Amino acid sequence: MNHLDETRNEHNDFLKGSLSESLVQNPYKLFEQWYDAAYTEKCVQPNNIVLSTVSASGQPSSRILFLREYDKNGFVFYTNYNSHKGVDISKNNRASILFFWSELERQIRVEGTIRKVSAEQSDAYFKSRPRLSQLGAWTSNQSEKVPNRAFLEKKMAEMEKKFPNEVPRPPHWGGYIIEPTFFEFWQGRAGRLHDRICFEKNENNWDSFRISP
């Protein structure tokens, strides 16, 4: 097995911040502070999330998506309901998302349950997308095998002809919201003694605690 040399890493230690238990008692407020900081500090794609789902057979899978909306109810992303992740969610509605901002040496892990957003919410977001992205939602049977790239390009051309003006939202495409039951806020610290502050939902309240790095 090849061992990676830590001394070749640009960041041999974590020195950019700290996190105290007394900072805030509401995980959504802390999330918003960190999310805003990721934009202020010009982190690369600050709204990237890693979504992890689990199939009916227990096989986990992960992929990077864009967070599109969030509020006190949860975090919203959009996709093809028939995709790999969509099939997983239809069988097991528990999942996690992960934010990682290397520039700030921070990550946030969120666990919870997933459900579809309303058709009205999905319609509104779909209308805001660029036309090519709208056509792509009709073109791609996401996660299904295709013979080659030309197959997709041919189908895209067909969709352009089919929808010369407004493109309606496909019935198989829309939003999901992950409703959190658990947050972990991770701040890198010197000597790998990282700060890890967690929030666990207890009915309508959040219990906070620190865990060991």
Topology:
Blueprint (H helix, E strand, L loop, with lengths): L26 H14 L7 E7 L5 E7 L2 E3 L2 E7 L3 H8 L2 E8 L4 E11 L2 H10 L2 H9 L9 H14 L10 E15 L7 E8 L2 E6 L3
Antiparallel strand pairs: 1-2, 1-5, 3-4, 4-7, 5-6, 6-7, 7-8, 8-9
Q: What does this protein structure show overall?
A:
- The chain is α+β, with helices and mostly antiparallel strands and 213 residues long.
- Helices cover 26% and strands 34% of the residues.
- Strand 5 and strand 6 (106-116) form a beta hairpin.
- Helix 4 crosses helix 5.
- The two termini are 26 Å apart.
- The mean pLDDT is 92.
The helix content, as a percent range, equals 25-40%
How confident is the prediction overall: mean pLDDT? 92
Q: What is the CA-atom radius of gyration, in angstroms?
A: 20 Å
* Main beta sheet strand tally, sense and closure: 9 strands, antiparallel
Overall geometry: elongated
What is the count of β-strands? 9
How many helix segments? 5
> Approximately what portion of the residues adopt beta-strand conformation?
25-35%
The ordered H/E elements are: HEEEEHEEHHHEEE
Helix/strand/pairing class, anyone? alpha+beta
**Low-pLDDT runs:** none
CA(first)-CA(last) distance: 26 Å
